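Tip: read the tokens left to right.
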């Protein structure tokens, strides 16, 4: 292959995937203060010696997964970030797709899922740890102010990092591997392969929230908690949005969901306190 063709392919890969990698890394940094403060509120250590599971959800593993996805994405048949690609590419080939309305529609679906989950948690006594702290009056005025200050960082950082890690990275790696294995046929983005990958990433996403012990219901074993965690079902929705409209719409869906659900949970907690 001529050198100029290889150089052109390398340049296209850099302009396509480097911005996504940087967005994911930035999201991890942005959300960290909010996450550490939540650990403080529920009385859990946010640092120290890691278990094997905690290591799997660490920033190091997240960045490694994003890097692997950058290599395997082209075999997945999935979109990347169409708007970012058009911004950085000199001759964009990816058509523009709607961004805002798919994300907002998905957020409304996730809100309905959260309402059902909150009703279940209330009547079966399986609250989220942070909700239990609020219900018990365990937040001082200073802690509440600090929580409000850090909350925007949590919303923005979580949406950026988790969509890059779980939708772009996890789905790209899983779909890329299944394309090599010809799961469901020769087409990389076939329905069977996608739904296998989407279910796996959703369970992993829900399990991650359960394992950290902050914003997922705590009752029974880890498998049961993962099965009833609203994050598991929201991840399925985000995966569909990503497949159809790209990473930007999935980020908007995640961000809008966190805003809507957080306000709903606070309202529900206040009404039942």
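Filled-in amino acids:
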């Amino acid at each position: 292959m001529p050198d100029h063709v290889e150089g052109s392919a390398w340049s296209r890969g850099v302009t396509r995937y480097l911005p996504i990698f940087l967005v994911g890394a930035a999201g991890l940094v942005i959300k960290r203060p909010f996450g550490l403060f939540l650990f403080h509120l529920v009385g859990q250590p946010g640092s120290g010696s890691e278990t094997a599971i905690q290591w799997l959800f660490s920033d190091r593993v997240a960045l490694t997964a994003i890097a692997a996805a950058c290599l395997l994405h082209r075999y997945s048949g999935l979109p990347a970030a169409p708007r970012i690609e058009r911004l950085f590419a000199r001759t964009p080939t990816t058509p523009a797709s709607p961004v805002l309305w798919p994300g907002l529609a998905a957020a409304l679906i996730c809100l309905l899922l959260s309402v059902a989950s909150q009703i279940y948690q209330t009547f079966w006594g399986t609250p989220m740890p942070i909700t239990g702290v609020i219900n018990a009056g365990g937040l001082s005025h200073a802690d509440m102010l600090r929580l409000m200050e850090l909350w925007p960082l949590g919303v923005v950082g979580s949406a950026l990092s988790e969509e890059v890690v779980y939708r772009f990275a996890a789905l790209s790696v899983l779909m890329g591997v299944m394309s090599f294995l010809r799961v469901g046929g020769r087409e990389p983005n076939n329905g069977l392969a996608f739904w296998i990958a989407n279910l796996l990433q959703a369970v992993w996403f829900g399990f991650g929230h359960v394992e950290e012990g902050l914003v997922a219901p705590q009752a029974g074993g880890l498998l049961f908690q993962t099965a009833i965690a609203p994050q598991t079902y929201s991840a399925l929705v985000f995966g569909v949005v990503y497949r159809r409209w790209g990473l930007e719409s999935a980020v908007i869906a995640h961000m809008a969901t966190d805003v809507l659900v957080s306000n709903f949970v606070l309202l529900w907690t206040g009404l039942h306190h």
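Residues 3-271 form one domain. Residues 3-7 have pLDDT under 50 and may be disordered.
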